[in-house]
């Protein structure tokens, strides 16, 4: 593929200069921004992530901020996850659905206070849907995208590095919780979360001006920890079963099809605009669902939908796949019809390089 032409519409991030200096080799676009995908190589980045610590520019995880007396009500309109028990300081993974129960996004929500929330979005223009609901329902809430840019610190040495920059008290932050920590006189939200299964933190950098100083402080402190620039890794996230909105699921899928039923409590999520639609599908159960799939042989880059076939019958599709160094197989994420979704079922997957043998797995590789 040829190079992508930069322009105002393809936004840089507060960390872009550092990402370039670190030798980024490829980007994708995400929320109209640049998201690095490769530094050394996807495989070398994978091994480094699993053994050391990386700093990721995930500013593409934009925040949709809700502020005002109706913010909790609006938040519950967006998701079938029951938010009544959610406390300030907690993060929730929340499927966001439209009135048909179709997935619009799969963000992490942060409750800052009763009347202030952040929705840390995946790749879709959720801001417009949220602003539309707020206006249409005449809600007393401000909806905008503040100058907040997440910087992730991921890998087995993440806690060690974070202690050096923010102090030992960072270790007390539990998974999917956040606290406030000071950097150069500014108080930043830091959560134990991130788009890998290796553990780590996400720093919600408030103000683009401290992006470079914070990046530099992490690299200065992490010299002896072999800290490197990294990014969400295409192999590691498939092994771990972390879904990618727009790739593994779209507006055509319900949360139940995506295997996100455990993040839905539709019966009690009063006010969710997709509630009636989801109550129906939850009762019957989905007729297709996300499954881990292993694929034999050599596979090309998965840059398109790969049909899953039994003879001439299409029974699903693979939307993410990669050769796994640690598991001696190609790991993949598929959407499979119920007639063929049992573990052990043998299928053929049609890649752009031809058909390959595939097997439905009972769990992801972690
Ligand atoms: N962090 C933040 N924002 C994000 C992402 C993130 N926005 C975009 C994208 N990633 C949203 N998608 C996901 C997908 C999975 C998870 C988080 C965001 C995730 N899942 C845990 C898992 O599957 O192990 C389970 C979470 C739970 O148990 O509640 O972490 O990464 N800020």
Distance between the termini: 33 Å
Topology order in helix (H) and strand (E) letters: HEEHEEHEEEEEHEEHEEEHEHHEEEEEE
Bound molecules: (6S)-5,6,7,8-tetrahydrofolate
pLDDT under 50 segments (min length 5)? none
Please give the domain count: 3
- CATH topology type of the largest domain: Gyrase A, domain 2
- Which structural class fits the helix and strand makeup? alpha+beta
- The coarse silhouette is globular
Number of DSSP strand runs? 21
Mean pLDDT: 98
Short account of what is shown:
The protein has 3 domains: 137 residues, Gyrase A, domain 2, CATH 3.30.1360; 82 residues, Alpha-Beta Plaits; 79 residues, Elongation Factor Tu (Ef-tu), domain 3, CATH 2.40.30. Helix content is 19%, strand content 32%.
Please, could you describe this protein's structure?
It is a single chain. With 366 residues, the protein is α+β, with helices and mostly antiparallel strands. The protein has eight helices and 21 strands. It has helices at residues 16-21, 42-51, 71-78, 126-136, 158-166, 211-221, 236-239, 275-284; strands at residues 26-30, 33-38, 54-57, 63-67, 91-93, 96-97, 103-105, 108-113, 116-120, 142-144, 148-154, 178-183, 186-191, 200-206, 228-230, 288-295, 306-310, 313-324, 329-337, 346-351, 354-360. The strands form five sheets. Strands 12-13-14-11-3-15 form a six-stranded mixed β-sheet, with helices on both faces. The protein has a six-stranded antiparallel barrel with strand order 16-19-18-17-20-21. Strand 1 (26-30) and strand 2 form a beta hairpin. It binds (6S)-5,6,7,8-tetrahydrofolate (THG). (6S)-5,6,7,8-tetrahydrofolate (THG) is lined by residues 61, 93, 106-108, 120-122, 150, 176, 193-195, 202, 242-243.
């Amino acid at each position: 593929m040829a190079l992508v032409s930069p322009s105002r519409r393809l936004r840089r991030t507060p960390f872009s200069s550092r990402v370039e200096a670190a030798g980024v080799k490829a980007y994708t676009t995400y929320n109209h921004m640049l998201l690095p995908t490769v530094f050394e190589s996807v495989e070398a980045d994978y091994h480094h992530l699993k053994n050391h610590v990386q700093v990721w520019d995930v500013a593409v995880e934009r925040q949709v901020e809700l502020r005002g007396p109706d913010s909790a009500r609006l938040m519950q309109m967006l998701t079938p996850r029951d938010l009544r028990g959610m406390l300030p300081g907690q993060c929730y993974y929340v499927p966001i659905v439209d009135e048909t129960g179709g997935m619009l996004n799969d963000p992490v929500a942060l409750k800052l206070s009763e009347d202030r929330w952040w929705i840390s979005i995946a790749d879709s223009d959720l801001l417009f849907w949220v602003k539309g609901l707020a206006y249409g329902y005449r809600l007393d809430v401000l909806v905008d995208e503040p100058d907040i840019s997440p910087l992730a610190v991921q890998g087995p040495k993440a806690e060690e590095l974070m202690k050096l920059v923010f102090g030992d008290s960072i270790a007390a932050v539990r998974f999917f919780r956040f606290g406030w920590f000071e950097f150069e006189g500014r108080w930043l939200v830091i959560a134990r979360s991130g788009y890998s299964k290796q553990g780590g933190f996400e720093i919600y950098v408030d103000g683009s001006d401290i992006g470079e100083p914070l990046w530099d402080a992490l690299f200065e402190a992490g010299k002896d920890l072999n800290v490197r620039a990294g990014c969400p890794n295409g192999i590691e996230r498939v092994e771990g079963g972390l879904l990618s909105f727009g790739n593994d699921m779209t507006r055509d899928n319900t949360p139940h099809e995506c295997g996100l039923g455990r993040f839905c409590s539709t019966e009690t999520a009063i006010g969710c605009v997709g509630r009636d639609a989801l109550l129906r599908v939850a009762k019957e159960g989905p007729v297709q669902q996300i499954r881990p799939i292993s694929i034999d042989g050599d596979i090309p880059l998965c840059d398109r939908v790969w049909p899953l076939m039994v003879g001439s019958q299409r029974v699903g599709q693979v939307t993410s796949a990669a050769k796994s160094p640690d598991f001696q197989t190609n790991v993949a994420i598929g959407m499979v019809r119920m007639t063929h979704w049992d573990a052990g079922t043998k299928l053929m997957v049609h890649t752009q390089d031809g058909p390959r043998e595939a097997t439905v797995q009972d769990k992801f590789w972690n």
